[in-house]
Amino acid sequence: MKVLVINSGSSSIKFQLLEMEGEHVMATGLVERIGEKFGRISGSMHPGSADQTAIEKEVMIPDHKSGMEMVGNVLCDEQSGVVRSRREIGLVGHRVVHGGEVFHQPTVIDTTVIEAIKENIPLAPLHNPANLDGIEVAMELFPAIAQVAVFDTAFHQTIPQRAHIYALPYELYERHRVRRYGFHGTSHKFVAGECSRLMGRELSETNLITIHLGNGCSMSAVEQGRSIDTSLGMTPLEGLVMGTRSGDVDPAIHSFLERAAGMNLTQIDAMLNKDSGLKGICGFNDMRDIHAAVAEGDERARLALEVQTYRNKKYIGAYMAVLGRVDALVFTAGIGENDPLVRQKTLAGLDHLGVELDYEKNSRRFTSPGTLHTGGSRVQIWVIPTNEELAIARESLSVLEDENH
Ligand code: ADP
After folding, report:
1. Residues 68, 70, 73, 74: is their CA dihedral positive or negative?
2. What is the whole-number distance in angstroms between the Cα of residue 113 and the centre of ligand 1?
3. What are the backbone angles phi and psi of residue 328, rounded to the nearest 5°?
């Protein structure tokens, strides 16, 4: 079956068409700058094969509907397309950021599901409306095809109360659903599954710490295939130090800044999300720029690297305590897959906990899964490239198969 994966943002639509037999990518691309003066669609048909064709077009794209129409048209284009008609597509899988407490699983979309996603808008005011736009437009353009929502939060719904309730007045949870939800769930679940498979073990018998380090960063304690704790919280701000997001800070900093710097909550919120993290400390949010700056003797860039990797290590320690036995650590996403120094600094000094890094194996980038541990390491260390599109496609398909049984 061919599955179209859609990740709809406020001004963009990322798409990928996968043939699930053999799990290969037939087409991949991005519609961007929707609603702006000059929009753009770019991508690749039959990527990685001899027939690979690049597409690129600059054209005004007034709304998501016309953006999605363009996706349908490039896929079906007589010359460069990969399918003859939209009817060849069997399923559309949508990434949805916030499923709240309602969605523990990917779910076939109907009007009730749309209503429930709408009800979760207060929890993700920037993301869920954009995801919904993508869903509604895709349902209009592909009316005969099942649509499945795959939620970033769903994998973390197994986290027990002791780890997801904040020590705040309990009414805030009851009235406003203030609690830890966690994000990047599709990625954590995917690399956990791949890791146990590659280790030749049952996921239900394996304890893992999954470490997603990209622009956004998060870590999860995965016990026997179930997420039991994660670092991102009610919003994608808590936990690790990210590109522009602070991660954990003392919550009293808010009122201090109001008094001392005259900042209001909107300004503080924007600062914590957009001007903090690595960028806040040293001015660069891309790890490659940070390495370049460190090489030129930039002390702040060095400090940003130290602060991020120290926080990573602290969370690994916490999750080792939470899990008891840990079989493997798994690095993934842009930094996790590509950055030997971040991995090395994150794991430095964990030998006494059974985590022994092989520096030689660690010294490269990974485009396919590999290990980093020494022969004597009690805990295995893996790098497994994440593949959220494939994960969404697999999950969407499995939901449909379950429904049909
Ligand atoms: P997103 O969270 O946006 O999906 P990615 O997983 O693509 O992010 O990760 C983006 C980050 O990965 C960049 O900010 C950059 O710091 C890092 N990155 C990508 N390539 C490399 C590389 N070769 N070396 C070091 N860091 C890299």
Report:
1. negative
2. 33
3. -160, 150
Provide CB contacts within 8 A for 274, sequence distance 6+: 244, 245
Instruction: Convert the pLDDT of each residue in 118-150 to its tens digit.
Output: 999 998 888 899 999 999 999 999 999 999 999
What is the model's pLDDT at position 125? 86
Whole-number Å distance between alpha carbons of 388 and 396: 12
Residue 135 and residue 149 in contact, taking contact as beta carbons nearer than 8 Å: yes
Query: How many other C-beta atoms lie within 10 A of the C-beta of residue 308?
Result: 26
Residue 296: predicted pLDDT: 98
Taking every pair of Cα atoms in the chain, the longest distance, rounded to a whole number of angstroms, is 63
What's the whole-number average pLDDT of the chain?
A: 96
| Whether 126 contacts 71, CB under 8 Å | no
Confidence of residue 171 (pLDDT cuts 50, 70, 90): very high
CA of 338 relative to ligand 1 center, distance in Å: 8
Banded pLDDT at 106 (limits 50, 70, 90) = very high
* pLDDT band for position 400 (cuts 50, 70, 90): confident
**Contact 61/70 with Cβ under 8 angstroms?**
yes
Cβ(289) – ligand 1 distance below 6 Å? no
Residue 404 scores a pLDDT above 90: no
The pLDDT value recorded for residue 10 is 87
Which residue ranges form the domains of the chain, and what is each CATH number?
2-151 (3.30.420.40), 202-388 (3.30.420.40)
In angstroms, what is the span from residue 324 Cα to ligand 1's centroid? Answer: 31
Q: In this structure, what are the phi and psi dihedrals at residue 322, rounded to the nearest 5 degrees?
A: -65, -40
> Which atom of ligand 1 lies at the shortest distance from residue 290's CA?
16
- The single residue listed with the structure tokens 């953006």 is 67
Our answer to whether residue 133 is catalytic in this structure is: no
Q: Which of 63, 77, 110, 152 is catalytic?
A: 152
Q: Is 67 in the pocket of ligand 1 (CB under 6 A)?
A: no
